[in-house]
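Consider this one:
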Amino acid sequence: MKVCGCGNRHDPRGTLSASESSTLTHRRQKVQIDFSRPGKPTDNCFIETFNGSLRDECLNVDWFETIDEARIKIESWRINYNESRPHQGLNDLAPVEYTRKMASRTMDQSVINAGS
C-alpha cells in the first residue's frame, strides 16, 4: 500500500482500499460492525423487502434517460412509499395513517390516565 497526494491509501493497482480504511476508522471509533452473511437475505428482511419493492415497483418499471429524470422518478416513488403506500408491517396502513392512529391512541391513553 502507498499513500498518494490525496492522503488515501491505494493498492498497487491504483484503487482505493476503502474496506481497510473504513475498518481502521471503525476500530479507532470503537464501532462494532455487524454484517449480514453473504447469501443470507433473511439477516435483514426489512431492507430486502424494501429493495425488492424499489426494484419491482420503480426501477424495473421506468426507463431513465437522464440522471435527473431518475432522481425525480425515484424521489416520487420514495415519497409515495414512505407516506401513502400501505405497508403490511403497519397493519396494511400507509405510514401517515399509522402515525395518526398511534398518535390518537396515545392521546386517548393520556386522557384515560389523566382521569384516573
User: Anything to note?
Assistant: The helical segments are 18-28, 45-59, 67-84, 95-115. Residues 1-6 have pLDDT under 50 and may be disordered. The CA atoms of residues 3 and 88 lie 50 Å apart.
